[in-house]
Amino acid sequence: MKISNQNYTSETFSHIYIEKDALYYPLTNKITSKLNKSKIVYIDNYNEIFSRKNQNPFLQKLSPSLILAVNKGDFIYKGSTLCHNFEQQNFYYTNFVVNCLLDCDYCYLKGMNFSSNILFFVNLSDYFHELSRLLNVIKERPERGQGKLYLSISYDSDILLFEGIYPFLKEWIEFAEANPQITIEIRTKTSNYKKFLNYSPLENLIITWSISPKEVIAKYEKNTPSLERRLMAISQLLEKGWKVNLALDPILYIGENWRDTYKEFLNLLSVNINLKKINAITLGVFRIPVEYLKRFKKFFKSPISFFPYDTVNGVSSYPEELKSKMIEFVSSELEKIYDKRNIYIV
Ligand code: SF4
């Protein structure tokens, strides 16, 4: 699998599974023409491949297949309480791409999905229809969040990885332009900033960069761009006037020297990017539904899976005392270099 430049080659996916209904969508042709050496297998329903039990997601992660399907279920979901909602009443997310080619040890997708294959839903226009309907509902009930809607479009994947084969950015940017009452958030660890340079910055489109100390990236964020490359990408877009958030999330307990590691990391941020231009910063320690953690332990033998977490209301995370210490330390260090009114803690 070649993903070092986030440029796709025919070897990226040895197999593409295509739902027969997906053949009617032009996007399917566009995608397959870019991956013209992959072996194509036609299927009736994507769940035959994606949701089959007894798969080994660890082995699939080494060489995932691509699945092209039509989403016939839900398009827009209420945001999880485990995510930052920026105090927005109408906080939603959507997923037209599921799973990721990057390989973070703490990624909840590894616990949530039976498969590590990459799933693209090719009926993007249906997402926009549903979103327009939801916006109308919200507009008619302005007491709910002043008619505004916050939508994260990349919770179940790092979608910017795939822009080269699944061109979604133009359509989302056009939708945001036409609907100022929606704020769209794209979350990423890539360094793919150049695509944005083809457009003018939008007040209601936020790019959230997930960043971590170098030690965390080296140990727990396999295949991801280095911190330097991410900071360079952030600087480029800030300079062009794009709205950028930073996600220092998950903050990980990486041994007794965690304070030094995070202090050095925050120092590096203040030196390398103009923090005054950052729209907001979110903080949160590692947390995961306990059921997902069970799958981590079964298939992914990372130290992240085996830390002695506490579980409260079905969510596993660090014991309360450690969690508080970590949040207090990182937030108080961050407040020395960044406006605390724009720091959000989950
Ligand atoms: S970049 Fe995000 S979606 Fe991809 S593996 Fe890492 S945590 Fe998961």
From TrEMBL:
The keyword Membrane does not apply. Pfam families: SPL. One of its GO terms (cellular component) is endospore-forming forespore. Coiled coil: none annotated. Transmembrane segments: none annotated. Gene3D superfamilies: 3.40.50.12110, 3.80.30.30. Keywords: Lyase. The keyword Disulfide bond does not apply. GO terms for molecular function: 4 iron, 4 sulfur cluster binding; DNA photolyase activity; S-adenosyl-L-methionine binding. This is Spore photoproduct lyase.
